[in-house]
């Protein structure tokens, strides 16, 4: 119980630490600065990860939308369940993504140079910015919700952080699916 009380008193600081650690791992893996020697490297698994992550992204979009729907209906328990499921899907996506990108690096765009320069890269940049921006809002909303009784949550910034997190998450996951389609199906 003491840990929960301590966490409750330090939500903002914990949010900052978790965000920094998470984003350091993401950028470390994307820049291939994370040691991968001890990791297994089965090619079929590495090849399957982008497709699995597209399915995970679709599922996350569904759980986020479901969570928003349920809270608007006043169903806090179902909202909480769906948002925790969204976070777990996000965590699963991230583990798979980091594993693959740390080993093989970012995927090269297979289309033409003009499309890459004027469509793919700007789209990817916006996706990355939104994905990075949503991280602290997600952690904050989850930490507030996990450390307070429901009645107290309404007196916090959970609603604001949750709305921002959900919007950024939805857009980022949706853009990720478009990027997946561009990398593996369109070009």
Automatic annotation (TrEMBL):
Sorted UniProt keywords: Membrane, Transmembrane, Transmembrane helix
* Membrane-crossing segments per the record: 12-31, 51-69, 81-99, 119-143, 164-186
**What protein name does the entry list?**
DUF420 family protein
Q: Which organism is this entry from? A: Natronomonas pharaonis (strain ATCC 35678 / DSM 2160 / CIP 103997 / JCM 8858 / NBRC 14720 / NCIMB 2260 / Gabara) (Halobacterium pharaonis)
